[in-house]
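Following up on my earlier thread - several people asked me to post the actual chain instead of describing it. Fair enough. Here it is, all 284 residues.
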Amino acid sequence: MKMYEILSKRKLNHDITWLVIYAPMVARKAKPGQFIILLTDEYGERIPLTMAGHNSEEGTIDLIYATVGRTTMLMDQMGEGDTFFSIVGPLGKPTHMEGLKRVCVVGGGTGNALAYPIAAGMHNHGIQVDMISGFKNKDLVILEEEFTANTDRTFVVTDDGSYKEKAFTTDKLKSLLAEGNEYDEIIAVGPPIMMKLICQIAQEAGIPCVASLTAYMIDGTGMCGGCRASIGGEDKFVCVDGPEFDGTLVDWDELIQRNSYYREQEAHDREHVCRLTGGVRYYD
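Reply from S.P.:
Thanks for posting it. Predicted structure:
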């Protein structure tokens, strides 16, 4: 096997892909909640991605990514046997698990890909895990089998009721709490407005809440400042101070506003990317 070789590639749905990559030095020290930085080629863009899992004995790491920009579009054109130019990690602080006996992890949309390593890691650590996995509709559902196998209970909900239970993640969390379920911690991973509401529900119930802000990372080293967030009135960098924070201390309104700053540029970057030229190919 070659270093950083793609050993397997599996499409979870139209936009989301699961890769298994040979990266023994990273796998040896990886822990749930941590991320890596990769380069597709020597002229590529450095992007951070949370590891969905790792196998230290086989020397592999798992990455789940959504095709949303230039680099992930290039990754979509890579296949088994192809290699990445470099992978650096593990980076970031691991998910806190000490002292926890029972938790509820709430994932929304593509955030479920980031919630999976947290939920599975906690479950493997001996923590009882309830997983709420929410999607807009049936076509977007991912990782149901994996969540079911690596948590104690998994609840899949869809906004439109096209699959399993019709509910928002916030509704399902409220119903579980109303049933008398007690948790040491609630972890939210997904769109910022969802995380804000989940943290409010947790706070009202007197339960500590953690929010994963991994999706806001850009450079991954704290040098660019792009992942700056206001936490308890202080500026923090998601990549070096997180990526998980006390959700009650996050200035969600500021984060939501900043999240829309580059919407136009992001839409522009979703044009077809040609792997041969490394550039963007536009069509009329």
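The chain has two domains: 6-91, 102-258. That should answer part of your original question.
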